[in-house]
């Protein structure tokens, strides 16, 4: 038995090493049931779930009345890391739950999250105005930074900073904001996530790139003499032979076109 | 969990009981559940006893003044409660008529369905399953010590605090536990006693 002489400590250690792997996750609603049973007020904590989106899993945290935070896990974010970040930002505990906040699943499926109650109380007035403006962009459409600045009544320089601090990823659709040249901002998203979200909403990415290369910012129709953002629902139904591209709003105005009343391009 | 986070937690507990308790459940729920699962060997029981342990913890916290809550070492304290809940549970179960005639020591080791349930069996690899069942064959105090030290990765000082014994005793329990564990896993290889002279 000389062999086992050497093996004893290593085997013992191996048994000890394997034991670490026996740490187990409790059932998903374990913590929530504890809090309910103890009788902690619902206002004291947020609950969160992980939902699937085209850009990977999305953690969505919500209080009793509104969504308070969301983050994509595509950047390697674990549930624990999300809880910690939520704690630091909102000073509220995020408890895992099995049921998402009412309306969140529908909002993610349709891309229409405009009416979803979202709590932005931790932000400055300007940041809140920017994010509220971003929320009004319809699914499948893109708006430039200048448009957001006008809607939110803030200087254009403040927009990208506010987008980068978006606490509710995807549900506040910052992936629908582009720079004035047409290139996507994606200030708060990891590379690739923005494209995945836009493609899932039916934005034609190749067409966007082509328009951008030609310097086209607006599309007009020579039958109606109205010009729009190229992703506006009205612009998308102009047939190719009636499309009139414009580089600036001034150019369109000089050609006798008026701005679309749905997508409201910046006219200055 | 590092010291700074631990301190933040106790500060919060001292300032706001409900908020602090919520945070306590969020941060340490997994530890309490893992401990109870590995000691009892049953998911349903770990769940029930975990709920009980936290309820007792909350009741106790209500009676503490803020100063005492600030002094708390949350994880060791919670696991002490969980260990007590488990011991009480074992004792209660031994009193049930179905088990009359079985000596207490044996009942303690054989009470619950120690076999992992179907859910767990599917998730576990063969090696892991052997380890889990070997763990459940250890005597009560050794099993607790081994789980605390090697599954949860606590220091011997913390283990001793939870077990309510001196540090040396905790070390001995862990070491004996590991040795019997090894013997259960490989019965052919004899355990060599360490020669100290």
Automatic annotation (TrEMBL), chain A:
Any GO MF annotation of the entry: DNA binding
Methylated-DNA-[protein]-cysteine S-methyltransferase DNA binding domain sequence ranges: 127-185
Keyword vocabulary terms for this entry: Activator, DNA damage
Listed GO biological process terms: DNA repair; regulation of DNA-templated transcription
Ada DNA repair metal-binding domain span: 215-265
Record-linked InterPro entries: Ada-like_dom_sf (IPR035451), Ada_DNA_repair_Zn-bd (IPR004026), MethylDNA_cys_MeTrfase_DNA-bd (IPR014048), MethylDNA_cys_MeTrfase_DNAb (IPR036217), WH-like_DNA-bd_sf (IPR036388)
Family matches, as SUPFAM superfamilies: Ada DNA repair protein, N-terminal domain (N-Ada 10), Methylated DNA-protein cysteine methyltransferase, C-terminal domain
CDD domains: ATase
Leader peptide range in chain numbering: none
Record's protein name: Cysteine methyltransferase
Species of provenance: Streptomyces roseolilacinus
